[in-house]
Amino acid sequence: FDELVGITEPIVKEPDYTPHISDFDITDQYFSMTLLGAAVDSLDEFSRTYHADTITKNILKYYENDPTVWDIQMKTVPVASANTAGNGGLLEVIYEQTVQYKSDRLPMPKASEIVLAPFDNLDFVNQLVSDMATQVTGISGIDPGGVKFGEEVNFFSYNMFIDDMIIKISPDEGLDNFGSTVVTQSLSMEVAQYWNEKNWAALYELEITTNIMDFFVEDGYVLITYGQSFAFKSIFDKDFVNKYTVATEPFESESFDQETYFKALLSKTPSGDFYEVPFFGTGEQYGEYY
Hints:
Layout: E1 27-38, H1 45-62, E2 69-83, E3 89-103, H2 111-116, H3 122-133, E4 141-142, E5 148-149, E6 156-170, H4 177-198, E7 204-218, E8 221-234, H5 243-248, H6 258-266, E9 276-282, H7 283-289
Antiparallel strand pairs: 1-3, 1-4, 1-5, 2-3, 6-8, 6-9, 7-8
Helix pairs in contact: 1-3
């Protein structure tokens, strides 16, 4: 055994182990939740932004003491909201969320896991409800089945078309087909802006294209018939949205001054002449009016 003399300790090989597996999971997807008891039809701009910031802040706080997930960067942007059961019912809110993070978990957690896991914690949910309730009356809880991320967020994409919107303008001099196109496209822009600013989950991300259907002079008036194609998203069935309401409601609210609006709009036509608008509405309304 002389050949073993001098060997006093065994040789120990360090395990082949990487203590931290760092990676990023970057996503830009829809995130939604259903709030219970909210006594509003939808969220106003301030409440939407406040809720989005509150969600981000509370999720980040949840992971402060979790050593397996770090360097979380999150942005939550409100998209739309709607009360699906009337006041005191279910307020569904849709957000767009971007998430970046590092983790040493195996397997690497998906963004949906990072976002949704806190909602399984009752303390987290209670604190989030308490924080949200400071800006929206009546919030009493979060529907566990109503918290969704990515492909689980339920919404539909629809297309609608109307071809009998009418605007009657006087006098008939100076307003040609090009000027009529300017007018009708501006009307569509007003409609899109109105609904997109409402952030109503029954009708959001609205895009409109406009076509002149007919243009003719009648008794000193220009009568323009035009069509509008609506492309939008909704959490409701297509029949929930009335296409004529979409086209006309922006011009019928008490705060909307039609006379001032049309005067400013028609001054943008190539001639820049002053015009009056004795009628604006649908073909059916025109038939009843005249």
